[in-house]
Amino acid sequence: MFKLIKWLLLLTVILGLASTAVVYGVLSLSLPALDGSGRSNAVVEPVKISRDVLGQAVINANSRNDAAYGLGYAHGQDRFFQMDLLRRNAAGELSELFGEAALGLDKKMRFHQLRKRSQIILQTLPEADKQLLKRYAQGVNEGLAQVGYSSFEYLLTGATQKPWQSEDSLLVIFSMYLDLQSATFERDQALIQIEQAYTKQMVDFLTQPSKYQAALNGSRLAPYSGGIPTLPTQTQHTVKSIEANQERGSNNWAVTGTLTKTGAGMVSDDMHLSMAVPVIWYRTQLNYMQNGAPTQVTGVSLPGAPAIVVGTNNNIAWGFTNGYLDTADWIALNDERKTWQVDESIALPGGEVENYSLILSEYGPVKYINEKPYALSWTAHQSYAVNMQLVKLEQAKTVDDALAVASDVGIPVQNLMVVDSQGSAAWKNIGAIPARKTPSELGVNADDYSVLWQQNELQRPFVKNPQSGRLWTGNSRVVSAEDNARFGNGGYALGARSSQIRDRLFEKQTFAESDFYALQLDNQARFLMPWHALLLKQLKTDTTKNQQYITALENWQQCACSNSIGYTLVKRYRDEVINILFSNMEDELNKQQGTLKYVKRDLEPAVWQLINNKPNTWINPQFKSWDAQLHGAFSQTITKLTEQFGNNVQSWQWGKVNELVIEHPFAKQMPLLAKLLNMPTATGFGDSYMPAVQGRSFGASQRFIAQPGHLEHAIMAIPGGQSGHPLSEFYRAGFSDYVEGKHTPLLPQELIHQIVIEPAQ
Asked: Are 708 and 265 in contact (CB under 8 A)?
């Protein structure tokens, strides 16, 4: 019997090793070749595609079009499946890969008809831009063809790799609209539903300006003075957890040359996005000739598009944060407004088709909100939403050159932060902004619809070389209070993060790259200090019962530090107070397919008014008094932490609760391959409402710092590797430096691979 068990165990080990060998063998077939030569009729002069020790793609070409081909070739080799997901997501074509499980998401995307819009916009682009996109697409397809074998994702889904088309690059830009701006019209929908279910006073109360305001001119919005609305009689039910929409945002800031030792301006940029494997950005350097002069641009590109998104040409350096201007309105329709139906066909695996019917109007696609028809007028639906003008930043010599380009660029509106080697620094909104003059967070009557929606706003505010020498943005209001009335609130961040960045910048008089990096990693919990004081005071009413929690709070370190138990208690306590206060409202909105999810970031000022004034109608029926309600919030905090992490409070340390987990999209479906596919888990560091933004799979998707003219100390840290292939030497390259806070160089290091593509003739 013992021998039989021994042989069975040995056989199991052998079969396990054999299956592992088969998996690795199949995967190795789709590894791209990073050395060699080839020929193509898509290039005019030889193109070199090199990789350094991090896998950064270094493209050398004689023209911008040839450089686009080289970048496309590298993207096609390293990131094609990711690019495929981006275009399919925007177009509503994921069901062809994943079957009926993706139908709901595809229908949601088809509402916007972005495939059709990309095809129409492509035909209107200047011939030079069409050629740029064509050459990029040729590079993608030839880079993919070089690999020879489909990647494992296609083998598992049984889908075929469809060639890249020029319109697909526009879809990739549209995918960023969906990621960065969909919360704007979702928030407006929630506010419409709140107004209809409650009152306009309730809308104003919930969205009142906070004390955290950090506009560049120091202006403040008028405080709310409408009083606390009476909440209708509440029903008793299980308290709902109100999910918070992830704040697609970013930090950036800059100083002029008066505050650097070199005399050059310096910029910092870290874009906050959901993080998966592979990470969204791709380290890139383009070297090409333009008008007889050499151009070198180093930064990150977005796989699927031929441009450097954030980076430097050594004359200027630039970065973006999401602008959150109001770029969407819901237009209330009446019976006189013409609508019509369009049928969309959604492909499924095996050739099957699912039909989806969409109602359209002259204002945009139509959705029923509380059983009333509204048309969505959104910037992404306009002809000026997407173009290739971002490439012009590569040729800018000064801040003024960059500012001149900003109004014409077709991307989701961003806060452009730009500096130059001569010491200037500036901010301006870059990207598409509707020219209509009266944005609204509530419904707009069709009679008040403005035809200016069809035009891009060219006149927009900017700030250049302020007297303080400092500029900052963090997704909160940047424009003046006066300009806010013109451009509107599309879901601004609360402002705590921007305020903390601003205050930190005024703590020093001279800055180097290391100072900016330290600020990117600043996890001090200034925002939660009032919540800490509230909870500590509450717990001290019974020191015997609460001693271990009091000790944790007294040692919380005032930061989202990895070993802080107190931080976890304060953060979760705040969440539970909000859940209890607004659970009935969330339940009411849910009945109309609505949610407070997109309004939750606005609630802080209202919550504190409620806590300080304790109105009786805002006591949840589960509790008899405000004190009981606040104590109940802490009891729920402890109950949920215990359910999630056990009753050992040491397991409640913030670094464990907020552990960084960056996963491949297929890892959950294939747990046995999770270790191969995912990034290593890392102790959590940072949170929301502070410069060091980090969630379990969300945070700074890159960290960039540069002084143009002095790039030897420039930094570009990314939480993942260049390649999407799990057996690539570059699959995890740079990840450990990112989680350890090391200064990963922006500029390419030693080049270790090279492909040369010669003209076919």
From this structure: yes
CA dihedral 494, 499, 501, 505 (to 10 degrees): 160
Task: Report d(CA 632, CA 233) in Å as an integer.
Answer: 20
First-residue to last-residue Cα distance in the chain: 72
Write down the pLDDT at residue 238: 78
In total, the chain counts a number of residues equal to 761
DSSP code for 591: T
Q: How far apart are CA 627 and CA 614, in angstroms?
A: 9
**Which 8-state DSSP code applies to residue 407?**
T
482 C-beta neighbours (distance < 10 Å), count: 10
Query: Residue 264 belongs to what H/E stretch?
Result: none
d(CA 318, CA 431): 14
- Residue 634 CA to residue 289 CA, distance in Å, equals 63
Instruction: Kindly report the backbone phi and psi dihedral angles of residue 631, in degrees, each rounded to the nearest multiple of 5, phi listed first.
Output: -65, -40
Contacts of 294 (CB under 8 A, 6+ apart): 287, 288
Cis before 278? omega within 30: yes
By CB atoms closer than 10 A (0-12, 13-18, 19+), residue 383 is middle
Signed CA dihedral, 182, 184, 187, 189: sign only: negative
Of 478, 523, 515, 505, the residue nearest 690 (C-alpha): 523
Mean residue pLDDT across the chain:
94
Q: What's the CA gap between 259 and 508, in Å, rounded?
A: 9
Tokens of 559: 């930061």
Identify any residues that bridge with 269 across adjacent strands, giving them in sequence order.
Answer: 252, 704
Helix (H, G, I), strand (E, B) or coil at 446: helix
The DSSP code sequence of 30-54 is TPPP-SEEEEETT-SS-EEEEEETT
Q: Which two tokens stand for residue 755?
A: 């492909």
pTM for the model stands at 0.95
47 has which bridge partners? 757
pLDDT beyond 60 at 757? yes
Q: Residue 232 pLDDT more than 60?
A: yes
Mean pLDDT along residues 631-653: 96
Which residue is it, tokens 């960290």?
Answer: 703
The predicted pLDDT at position 475 comes to 96
> What does the radius of gyration of the chain's CA atoms come to, in whole angstroms?
27
The residue type found at 39 is R
At CA 74, angle to CA 72 and CA 76, rounded to 5?
Answer: 65
CA-based torsion, 669, 675, 678, 680: positive or negative: positive
State both tokens at 178. 């969906």
H/E run at residue 73: helix 64-91
